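> forwarded from #structure-qc
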């Protein structure tokens, strides 16, 4: 039962996926705000707590911008 476990891996520092100074599109910014909130919010991460109002608002804004972007690409 008390088998030896390997030591936890050392933390790795990663370079930013997006270089400093680069700008995201409004759609990407909205998605980033949504994901950043939901992955860091204790309320969102606990499935037994129900809905988080801030997360819902960020999700609606992201989806609104997504719909607008798709319509812009489709020309409608």
């Amino acid at each position: 039962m008390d088998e030896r476990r390997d030591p936890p891996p050392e933390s790795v520092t990663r370079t930013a996926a997006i270089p400093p100074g680069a700008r995201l599109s409004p759609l990407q910014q909205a998605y980033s705000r949504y994901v950043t909130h939901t992955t860091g919010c204790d309320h969102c991460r606990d499935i037994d707590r129900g809905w988080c109002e801030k997360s819902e608002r960020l999700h609606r804004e992201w989806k609104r911008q997504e719909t607008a972007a798709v319509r812009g690409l489709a020309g409608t």
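QC bot note: The two ends are 63 Å apart (CA to CA). Helices lie at 26-40, 42-45, 53-74.
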